[in-house]
Design brief:
7 strands, five-stranded antiparallel sheet
Amino acid sequence: MKVGRLWVAGLCSGLILWACGSSTAGKSVAYDLPETATSGKLKVGSRSFQPENPIPTQYTGYGQSFVPVITWSAPPAGTKSILVLVEDPDAPGSEPFVHWNLRNVQPDARETPGSGAEGNNSSGGQGYYAPKPPPGGPHHYYFEVFALDRELDDAAQDRDAAVQEMKGHVLAKGQFVCTFQKP
């Protein structure tokens, strides 16, 4: 009888989490993965919109899909390249949706757009894919910048390959989060 009650309680708890839209459960943005661990910090911001606020519509797929200007502080000595990722862990699916994967940005750069190679985004293309979430609650967009002691291999076009290549090579990182929901 006691085991049955525990099982029912566990099932109910799971259903409540599912019903509340716990879509980020188990999804980690690159910034939080062990492969990107470092004690070095970068200050990351934007000249296009305010961090920790909603993204203005003109930077989304419901507006003009403008590419935002992301800025960061000077990386540490020994930096050979910068990686910029924009990820949405609230998107449907088992992985965060990658909106931007800008790789091998020159170490002296302090903002996007600029130098760098466009890696794959989760839409199947390359370049910035403007946020366009489905109806529902707000999605969280993580703007992440990594200073690396190497350039990424040209074959590392997707986020997972880049994360694996970064392991042990992240000198500093920084991020900010913004939200957006369908108007």
